[in-house]
Amino acid sequence: MSRTTHTCPGCDREDLVQAVPAVYLAGRNAVTSRERDSDGDMRTVTRTVSTGLSDALAPVPEPPTYAISCLGLLAVAVSVGTFLGGALGGKWFADEPGSEAAGSEPSGVPDYWQGIPAVQPPEPPPSYAFLGWISALALLAAVLVFAVVARRRSAFARITRRRHHAEELWARGWYCHRCGTVHFEGVPGEDRTPLTLQRFREKVWEHGGYGDLAGQQRAVNRAR
What we know:
Radius of gyration: 33 Å
Strand content: 15-25%
Shape: elongated
Structural class: alpha+beta
Number of helices: 6
Strand order of the largest sheet: 1-6-7
């Protein structure tokens, strides 16, 4: 850990004081692993693993989760599957479904009633219309899911459009590993009072215009 010329206002020592951006980046590592995909093929996956301290010092909120997108993909698969099943089974695109060639004898099972031969009409083919309804409803569900995801992305981008203001203040913070507090250096209007991680987050996020999210995503230092 590199030494700094800044002392902590809490313990009045400088040996364990480090710039907030450095602490934040030090706690974030890219981990690469080999995994099998849904087809059974091996692929290389890279994920970012972060410590609790790095998460607590994040200058912006965590983006909304998009796990609901899986439901949208599932709905698309159901829509396509039921549509193909109905089209093939019900012959929706046949030229003349259920028609017979002109002049051909009616097909059926001969029956005898009072000695008179008769021909019973063939049983009607099963209806696949319900698959069309299922396909349409699944497609509608997929459209609604993707609309929700797009709205969440747009809302998050709108909320964090001033993140550069928050990052300017965030970059002037100093973290003391001994005290577990943060203080500002050389920031107009801010003194050197030691701040808890939560209070530091509130100040930084308020500067970026999304301070109300600090109460929803609270800073928790799980690792020093």
